[in-house]
Design brief:
This protein is mainly alpha-helical. It has helices at 4-7, 16-108, 116-147, 186-207, 263-268, 287-304, 317-325, 353-361, 378-383, 396-402, and strands at residues 150-152, 167-170, 173-174, 213-217, 227-231, 247-248. α3 (116-147) runs antiparallel to α4 (186-207), α6 runs parallel beside α7 (317-325) and α6 packs across α8 (353-361). It comes from Russula earlei.
Length: 405
C-alpha cells in the first residue's frame, strides 16, 4: 500500500485511493455474481416450466384425495345411521308383530275375569259409540224437522184394499221420481234439487260420511249459481270413479228441454244476482247423468247406515233419505269415527252406477199420482210450460247411449 496510515492496523483510516480501489473490486464481484445469478434464475425458470404440468396434476390429485376422504367419512357416517335406523325398524316390526299376536290371542279368548282391562276398554268404546250415535240421531231428527221432509197424500191399506203411496216433499216442494220430472216446471225442479243437496250435505256432515260424487256451485257458495257434480278419487268398484267430468244438475228455464248438452243455454239460465268466481266447465253429458249421480249418492249413504235400497227404488230420493234418517244403525258407522268405514265404495256395495244410469235414462212410466194442489207461486205459474209444449227429460235412447264412454 502507498499510504502509511493504511498499513497501520491500530487505526481504521482509509485514503481516497484505497476506497476507490475497494469499490472497483466490489463492483467487479457484483457484476460477476449478477451474471451468475441471472444464469441460475434462467435455468431455474426453465426447470420449473418443465415440471409445472406434473405439479398441477399432483396438486389436483391431492385435492381430489382430500375430497374423496371427506366423502368416505360422510358415507361411513350414513352407513352407521342407516344401520341404527334398520335396527330401530326391525325392533318396531318385532314389537308390532308381538302386539298383533297378542291382539289375535286376545280376540280368541272369551271375555271374562282373565282380561278385565280389555273388557273395560271395549265397554268404554261401545259407550262412546252409543253416545255419538245418539247425538247424531238428534241432529238428524232436527234436520228432518227443519227441512220438513214428509210424505203427503197416499192411503194406508184398509179393508183388504192395497194402499197407495203419496208424494214426498222437502220444504213443501215435491221431488219427483225421474219419470215424473217432465211434469214440473224448471223453477220447481231447480228449487227442490237445491233443497235436497243442502239436506244431503248437512246429513253427511253430521254422520261423517264421504259420498262418491261431490257437488260444487258456480257461485262458490252453497245455493249460489248452478250445482255441478263429479266423482271423487276412488276404486273401480261400482264403475263410478271414471266419471270425473263435471255435469250440471240444473234445468234451464229458457230451454224447452232439461238435457244439459248445451253450455250456452246453461250460461244463459244463470241468475244475474251473483258474480261467478270461475267460468262453468264444459258439460260432457246431460242432466240425466248428474241426477243419476245424486241418486247414487243417496243409495250409498243408505248403505253406510245399514239400509238396503234396491235398484227399482233408487229414484225415490226423499223416501230413501227418510229411511236413512229412521235407520236403527243411524250414526254408528262413519268415515271419521270408530268404527271406520272403507273408502267409497267397497265391493260389498252392490249397486253399479252404469246400471243406475241406464235405469234413470230409460224414463220408466211414472206411478199413478194423486191430484196435488197448485201451490206454486205466481212466478212459477207464469213459467209453467203448457201441456202441448211439454219438454222431455231425455232424447230417448240417444241420450242414454251418449252417457257411456
Amino acid at each position: 500500500m502507498e499510504c502509511h496510515n493504511c498499513e497501520s492496523r491500530q487505526r481504521q483510516f482509509y485514503c481516497e485511493n484505497c476506497i476507490r480501489t475497494h469499490l472497483r473490486d466490489l463492483r467487479l464481484q457484483i457484476q460477476h455474481a449478477t451474471v451468475e445469478r441471472d444464469e441460475q434464475v434462467r435455468k431455474s425458470t426453465a426447470a420449473i416450466e418443465t415440471i409445472r404440468g406434473s405439479r398441477v396434476r399432483r396438486a389436483d390429485l391431492s385435492t381430489g384425495q382430500e375430497m374423496l376422504d371427506e366423502l368416505n367419512d360422510g358415507l361411513a357416517n350414513l352407513r352407521r345411521e342407516n344401520d341404527r335406523a334398520r335396527q330401530r325398524v326391525r325392533a318396531l316390526r318385532e314389537d308390532i308383530a308381538t302386539r298383533r299376536r297378542t291382539l289375535s290371542q286376545a280376540k280368541l279368548l272369551p271375555p271374562g275375569p282373565l282380561d278385565p282391562l280389555i273388557a273395560r276398554e271395549l265397554t268404554q268404546l261401545n259407550a262412546h259409540a252409543d253416545t255419538i250415535a245418539r247425538a247424531r240421531s238428534g241432529l238428524v231428527s232436527e234436520l228432518v224437522e227443519v227441512f220438513n221432509v214428509v210424505e203427503v197424500g197416499g192411503r194406508p191399506p184398509i179393508g183388504g184394499k192395497a194402499g197407495t203411496k203419496g208424494e214426498w216433499t222437502i220444504g213443501d216442494l215435491v221431488l219427483p221420481v225421474p219419470g215424473d220430472i217432465r211434469r214440473y216446471p224448471p223453477d220447481h225442479i231447480n228449487a227442490v234439487i237445491t233443497h235436497a243437496l243442502h239436506f244431503i250435505g248437512l246429513l253427511t256432515f253430521y254422520l261423517g260420511i264421504r259420498l262418491p260424487f261431490e257437488v260444487t256451485w258456480t257461485g262458490g257458495k252453497l245455493g249460489v249459481g248452478q250445482p255441478w257434480v263429479r266423482s271423487i278419487k276412488g276404486t273401480e268398484s261400482g264403475s263410478w270413479a271414471k266419471w270425473t267430468s263435471k255435469h250440471c244438475l240444473h234445468v234451464s228455464a229458457s230451454s224447452p228441454s232439461p238435457v244439459a248438452d248445451n253450455p250456452t243455454v246453461l250460461a244463459q239460465s244463470t241468475s244475474d244476482s251473483y258474480i261467478e268466481t270461475c267460468p262453468p266447465p264444459n258439460p260432457s253429458s246431460s242432466f240425466t247423468t248428474a241426477y243419476a249421480m245424486l241418486l247414487y249418492n243417496v243409495c250409498y249413504l243408505a248403505y253406510t247406515q245399514a239400509v238396503e235400497i234396491p235398484l227399482s227404488q233408487a229414484g225415490d230420493v226423499l223416501s230413501n233419505l227418510w229411511s236413512v234418517c229412521c235407520s236403527a244403525e243411524l250414526g254408528r258407522r262413519s268415515h271419521q269415527t270408530h268404527p271406520l268405514l272403507p273408502p267409497p265404495t267397497p265391493p260389498s256395495f252392490p249397486l253399479d252406477f252404469a246400471q243406475l244410469l241406464q235405469a234413470t235414462a230409460a224414463t220408466p212410466a211414472s206411478r199413478p199420482r194423486p191430484a196435488r194442489p197448485r201451490t206454486m207461486v205466481t212466478v212459477e205459474s207464469r213459467n209453467r210450460i203448457p201441456e202441448e209444449d211439454e219438454w222431455d227429460l231425455l232424447d230417448d235412447e240417444e241420450a242414454g247411449a251418449a252417457e257411456f264412454p
